[in-house]
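Researcher: I'm comparing several assemblies side by side, and this is the next one on my list. It has 590 residues spread over two chains. Same procedure as the others: predict the full complex and return the structure.
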Amino acid sequence: MSHSRLARRRRRAGILLSLPAVALVTALLGVPIGQAVYYSMTSWNGITSTWIGPSTYSVALHDPIFWRVLENNGLLLLAIPFAIGIPLCVAALLNEHVRGWRFFRSVYFLPTAVSWVVIGMVALQFFAADGILNKLLADVGLGTSATDMLAGQHSALAALAITFIWSMLGTNTIIFLTGMATLDPTLIEAARVDGLARRQIFFRVTLPLLTRFIQFAFVITVISAFSALFSLIFVMTGGGPGLGTTTLEFFVYQSGFAQGQFGTGALYGIVLFVIMIIVGLVQLRLIKPADEEGR
Amino acid sequence: MTATPTTPTSPAPAPAPPAAGPGSRSARARRRLNSGLVLVLMVIVAIVMLYPFYYLLDNAFRNQTQFDRQHGHSAAGWTQLFQSLPVGSELLNSTIVCAAAIVIILIVATTAGFAFAKLRYRGSGLVFLFVVAALMVPLQSIIIPEYVNLAKFHLISSYTGAVLVYAALGAPFATFLMATYYRGISDELIEAAVMDGLSYERTFLQIALPLSLPAIATVTVLQFIQIWDDLLVGLLFLPTNDRTITVGVAALSSGRTTSIPALMAGSLISAVPAILVYLIFQRHLVKGLTLGMGK
């Protein structure tokens, strides 16, 4: 068989086999994102749409509700250091490889298999006025500091953030544990011979070598905080009290499916998309150099 | 790797006084103390991670009064759950939707993954980038046009719409994972099969596909948990009487009329299948996550 005929057959097979994936992604992700851009510049109730133009975006920028919602996304970012720092410590514990560490690893990763709905359901009972948290506080003699966290705007967001940190523990711990497994043990041994204390070894040797993994965990955590918490908000707070826990992703649902303002919903969806692209580009920039270095 | 106190990563007391050499008694005692401390910390984290599951189990077997008093157990939670939720048919719905979406994902991801890895054609790199870039599209950004499109094609009165959306959402990462896996298969193997007279399509089916079973398992487990646990797609795109169990339980909670023990029972039953899959296949889940790191 001639070489060029083979190459032609190969190309045809390549196109044929990649076609279903391309068609699926185009029809259900590509086209709708284009439509969302278009509809974000219209006034649209789901049936009739009136073209308005890019001015919808400047209107939104002058809307206090937009900034209130964006503020919630910003405040959620305050959870990120905890959602990364705590798993780092937990991974360091597991990495001591004390007898039974594999069992603990499985336990910590377990919430990854559980839906946000279920997590939210228990979290609701945890933070409720007569819930677990206040009972715990009373048990240790702090009954006076009992609070109804879900009743206040900022405290409800804090409750949401704490639940989020709890849920991310497994994923981020596994990421860091994988990273620690790639470290060259002789480096740590050398540092120890040099007389560095364990804490110094962790901060001066281990941590810098884990940079890539920390960056990856950071991106995953930000993406989750901004686009995976719908169910948690739905179950725990319904976006309230007021707009207290309404983030961009929840506002899309609210304005589209509760208030029938499809144009506004589409616009907020696009704002969220742009934020995700920025986070994604940061990730690409961070991971590229590390890859070249590794090969 | 078994954990012994002599592995290089095991804890060691920092700057050891000259008298306490590595083999001396006090160093060994201190090391044992250290791993004891690590164990205690790991147990504390385990309690924090497992408590919600204990809470679910404990409170599902109560009635509302027993719940309020946190005293006494009964089957009331379960009886009320089965009265207010078609648990059996919703579990079946979850299974059908998961299975259908995973089949589609596997078909498009294995074929496209193989094409992008082994049957490169001009522009295939860009097409690959397009498919993988769809990962960055948050569901909320497209949900409104998606809803309108699917409604227009009458796809939200059955499983079809939700299955298609789940498939499209899962396809980019699955394709990425499969392509990564197929790149690890040698080109010579593929070319040898073609020289033997197999078409590229047959080579894919008979040679590459059986070799990629581990990656297929990873995709299946990841997607099963993701789709089983999802709320938003099911909530919007499934007809009310064809809901999945996760959606059913979430809807029950937003009704606010159901007793808390019934909600706990519902949460528990909705979580069990995903937890079982996790416990049996956790290796694949971890592999999928680390593959996502571009390793």
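Model: For your comparison table: Confidence is low (pLDDT under 50) at residues 290-295 of chain A.
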